[in-house]
Amino acid sequence: MKKNPYIIIFLVTPFVLWVANILSPGATVSNQFQRFIDVPNIPQGEFKYGGSTTWAQIRKEVDPEIKSALSNNFRLTYIDPPPKETPGSYTGIRMLLENQLDFAVSSHPLTENEKKQGLMEKEVAIDSIAIAVNPKLVLQKQGLTIDELKSIYTAKITNWKQLDGPDEIIKPYTRDPKDGGTVDFFLKEVLKIEVGQLQADFVEDTTRGIREVVSHLGGVYYASSPEIVGQCEIKPLPLGLTAEKFIPPYIPPYLPPKQCHRFQSKVKVNTQELRSGSYPIKRKLYVIIKQDEPTKQQVGEAYANLLLTAEGQQLLEKAGYASLYDTQAN
Question: Which CATH architecture has domain 30-127+283-329?
């Protein structure tokens, strides 16, 4: 009996897609919607969100495009935390639970306790973390390994001469671990240390961290790559899991301050190495949605779905984040 080729295709295709996802964890084969205007069920009005400081470039470069495409009918306002509190993923999630926001954004996944309180997450992009030093700091080696970073932030290495650099005391800076997802991720997932092992000076935000690095030759700070790459006053360092291979968080070559200011449009995050998995510090970004209130759930899901369109993913790439799937495939 002659076999039906369409039945064979029907049976094989799911298996092929399953294998593709196993070989490339987290990859999405395609996306349902191409453009912002294709996304259904977008509520009209002005809505509030807050949370991760990593979202700064998204607020600057992606949100205005969404607003424009939807003819100003879907308007987003970022809400700063109350006085004496600092912005960050944890703060945004707490504000969402206390009904101060319509949805939150986060650089770390929800905890089981947060999920039990009616929250859900949607992955929307891949982010990387960059290490910044003073541009006048000269190292004989190409970059730093993750183990060397751990030794810096636990005070096992305290002078740059221990890393083939000048005789200069290392001054590591960090935001407070209780403030946001970036610090929590860096300590737990990258350095694999407890808060009590951390040896660094605290700064209130990335702006202050960058200023400290500019002011001190021995300074070192870390933040989301879009917040570091393109800041001409500091130097992002290539990183490696081992000393055999260092990957820069920027697209080579590195441009020193004067050239950086002159050709700033050419200074971009190395999203290709990030998406391929070669860059050693990466994490997902999430939209956090409140499920027990229909309007809030609709708003949060709408924003996530907008970012997941081909148009949204391409804008996220432009802003310095890696897309979750190949936007050219759609």
Answer: 3-Layer(aba) Sandwich (3.40)
